[in-house]
Amino acid sequence: MTELSSPSGTPILQLERVSKRYGQSVVALDHVTLNVVAGEFTAIMGPSGSGKSTLMHVAAGLDSVSDGRILIDGIDITRTPDRGLTELRRRKVGFVFQSFNLVPTLDVAENIALPITLDGRRPSGAESQWIATLVNQLGLRDRLQHRPAQLSGGQQQRVAIARALATRPAVIFADEPTGALDSRTGREVLAILRRATSSWGQTVVMVTHDPIAAATADRVVFLADGRIEADHSGLDAASISSVVLGLETAA
Ligand SMILES: Nc1ncnc2c1ncn2[C@@H]1O[C@H](COP(=O)(O)OP(=O)(O)OP(=O)(O)O)[C@@H](O)[C@H]1O
Ligand SMILES: [Mg+2]
What we know:
By secondary structure, the protein is α/β, with parallel strands linked by helices. It has helices at 52-59, 82-92, 108-117, 125-137, 153-165, 183-198, 211-214, 237-250, and strands at 3-4, 11-22, 26-37, 41-45, 67-72, 75-76, 93-96, 171-175, 204-207, 219-224, 227-233.
């Protein structure tokens, strides 16, 4: 059984009629309205060019909107000036990229603590404890002094996830986090993101092309041509595949 998702509880992320245009002709997002509830694991799917990355970037405050409002934890990031936005992003948002995006000159420990050190602080006792837990849970304890180039892809992505989780942000955005990994390593990374929501109460929004990955999420939002075309909870991988196929043949 599948049902249309109607999240109850307080939304931690709210997009209200968000549009993003590039130049005169490209409409990457077309009046997207989306509420994400705290602790939920949401997958975003859709054909190439449907606006998935754009959605993640504007929702994370990495790019501006053309129209509409975005609230993270009740704060309107579309009305926050640049300086405040950088700080807000550092504290409230974690981002995991397909290509890891670690700082090559910093070791694993320094990369993980980066959101805190960039905030001009040293990790508090509680933060150090939390980071130590993450490092253990993600199997990185014997890699702390290594540089990213000395790690496998899966290890690099685990460091990126630990960095995204370090501040316990309101929302973690992950844009095809398993895209550059082999399927077994990808499943491990996915399991970590799943655990971040189920066990650690984090909120994760993840773009994926993989129906099996999307089926591990609580909710799957389907984009096409910059619009939300479907929004379901509890779909299995086969049902997700048929929705994706339907959108791709309609495009
Ligand atoms: N900086 C930009 N300048 C102009 N157009 C852009 C820019 N970034 C994205 N676009 C356009 O916006 C649309 C949505 O792009 P987006 O990257 O969000 O797609 P996507 O769903 O993430 O695709 P993929 O699955 O290939 O990653 C596309 O038509 C793309 O060409
Ligand atoms: Mg993309």
